[in-house]
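Q: I'm writing up a methods section and want to include an example of the input and output format. Could you take the sequence below and give the corresponding predicted structure tokens, formatted cleanly so I can copy it straight into the document?
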Amino acid sequence: MSDPAAGTLRLASPAGRWVLTAAVLGSTLAAIDSTVVGIALPAIGRTFSLSVSSLQWVVSAYLLALAGLLLVGGALGDRYGRRRVFLVGTAWFALASALCAAAPDATVLIGARALQGVGGALLTPGSLAIIQASFAPDDRGRAIGAWSGLGGVGTAVGPLVGGVLIGAASWRAIFLINLPLAAAVLVLGRRHVPESRDPSARGRVDLPGAALVTAGLVGLVAALIAAPGRGWSAAPVLGGLVGGTACFGLFVARERRTPNPVLPLGIFRVRQFSATNAVTFVVYAALGGALFLLPVQLEVVARYSALEAGASLLPLTALMLAFSARSGMVAARIGPRRQMALGPVIVGVGMVLLRLVGPSGSYLTAVLPGVLVLGVGLVITVAPLTATALSSAPVEHAGIASAVNNDVARTGSLIAVAELPVVAQVGGRSYLHPAVFAAGFRTAVVVAGVAAAAGGVLAAVLVRDHPPAPPSGGEPAPAPPRALSCPLEATPLAAPAHAGAERA
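A: Here is the clean output for your methods example:
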């Protein structure tokens, strides 16, 4: 049975504030880790003498586990208790963080990062689901807004905290900082968060489906990362491509016939939903690939300290926090198509401007122009992109729509982190040679910029301002509050945002 306090809390009450605090700290725990690891990549590479492909795995191992298991995490919370799964995920994440900090070599670090992803998949869906399930309906919107704003501020300081810790101690400290945060979440969660479940959730959780999609992602990403060194015709590369494709095929076949699919494929019959997620994939692939390489360019080529690199994107964060809500209001009034078409093009221009980042030039002339233009593009793009992904789905699939949009963003980032360094010919230990890496970075941001602009073209062609109601559910799902499902944390170094894989 659910806790009798579930669905009745008030934001102004002490109990409501404690629940909000626990949820914010939990979501911030996972989001901060996503932002600070990018800042730490050069230091990690130097410690273990890693190649670029190994650094790719430091990022990709976490995203693979998170993307593959995010839907399962939401389903487990619905069936077995959102608080229970949220706290299990928090404890798991903390233990994996400790293992990351103590890793004696790259293999252990990459494995621990994968374990962090499993914890994140259990933790992330529960954060917002607890808010939605715990508060009274007329207080829920304000609670979600407070969760979004406070979590955004917390995530914004992540790169700064990471830079301070790396400079004062080492990259290992960025993982140790998770331990006191996780302890606070566990204490507050056990004492103050009411339990809730979805009474309509029936049947077994589709673990085989989750295993298939995760295996497919692992095979594909492993092949893309290995191909530059081994060649596309090498047996491990071909095996990864064929095996990954086969797993995706088996996943689709299973989801069509299982009574409780982890991903109801019928949701993609809604044209607006499919189109929005296609744009999400392209834009976040461009963003993830470029922001994987940017910290290395700042620290190795431009000779920024870890703290300076972490602080360099603060204007982007400030723009997102200040204007995302207004952007969502404009899109609600005029329709999403124009913003979703224009925004990615501006994002692309901002990425191309990052070519200015190099060994010469000040922050004001070399870094800030690209960061500001990129921020303006994201402000224009993210709110309507996220709201449209949710509002275009049938109301009974609102939670699934949110989770799918986040998974699509993470998958796009995964593919780009694996492939963009190949396209730009940034491999081996090129990050230890500033001139070599700088040449590849300039190519990479142009490729990423063109890809982002292509996402805008895709939106102009496919997205509608006033689509018909989804066929399977009658009414579309209501548009969410700001940042309900903003998937920016899919990128290795990102503006603050929170995943919404919830089935509240």
